[in-house]
Amino acid sequence: MRREELLGFQWEGRKFPLIDNQLGIRKPQGMTAALSILTTYTSDGARAPYEDAVGQDGLLRYKFQGNPNHYTNVGLRRAHELGVPLMWFFGVQPKLFLPFFPVWIVAVELAELQVAVALEEAQRHLRVDGPVSPIERRYSERISRQRLHQPVFRQRVIQAYETSCAMCRLRHPSLLDAAHIIPDRDTRGVPAVSNGMALCKIHHAAYDQNILGVRPDLVIEVRADILAEIDGPMLKHGLQEMNNLSLSVPRRRADRPNPELVEERYEAFRAAV
C-alpha cells in the first residue's frame, strides 16, 4: 500500500488515516489504544536488515517513539493491557508499505524502550518474561521469518527488479519469486536485496537445483548435460537459451547481487555439476 492511500483512508465517509503523518505509531484522538505501528523503509546499504529486531524468545521488537510517556507509547501499552490487535505497516520501498494484520503487543520492556510483537495467535502464548526453550525459540523465529521477513524480502526484491525475472524478463508478478543467492537457512543468508534475485518459478527452481548458475560476471551458465539434452520447447527456450545471457540487475547499485555471495554460490554450482 502506498503512503498516500494509508493517509487518505476513508471510513464511514470520513477521512481516517491508518498511519500518522509524522510519527511511527498511530494513536487516533478519542481511541484508548494505538491503532497501528509503522516501520519506514531503509535500504540494505544503510543497515543490516532487521538488525536487533528479534529477541531471545524469537519475537519481534518495536521501539518506542521517544519519551516512554509520549501519548503514542502510552497507546502501545494500552493495546497490550487490553489485548487488542494492531496493524503493522512495513516499508518495502520509499512510501510503499506491506501491511500485517492482526499483530499484538505481548510485552512492554521499559528498560529497552520497546515492546514485543506477536504476529499470530501461537506467538501470543509464548513466555516473554524468562528463559525460552530452544524448541520454542526456533518455533517463534520460524513464525517471524515466514510471516514478516520472507514477505518483506519478496516485495523488496520484486520491486528492485521492477517486477521482472532477472533471467527471462517475464513480468507476471504471480509467477515471480525472490530467490536467495545464499539460502536463508545459512547464517549468512540474510534477507537483503543484495542476497536475492527476482526469478520466475521455473528459473528459481532451476537455480536452486543447480540446473543453471550465475557466474561472478553475472552471466548465466547452464549445466553441460542440460545443454546436451533433447526435449520439447520448454527445455530449449526456457533453459538452454539462457546459457551465456547476462543477468538483468536493479538500477540501484546497493540492490545488485553481492559479488562475494554470487561467487560463493557459483562455486557451489560448479561443485554440483
UniProtKB/TrEMBL annotation:
Source organism superkingdom: Bacteria
Domain named HNH nuclease: residues: 165-213
Entry keyword Nuclease: yes
Keywords: Endonuclease, Hydrolase, Nuclease
Record carries keyword Hydrolase: yes
GO molecular function, one term: endonuclease activity
Protein name: HNH endonuclease
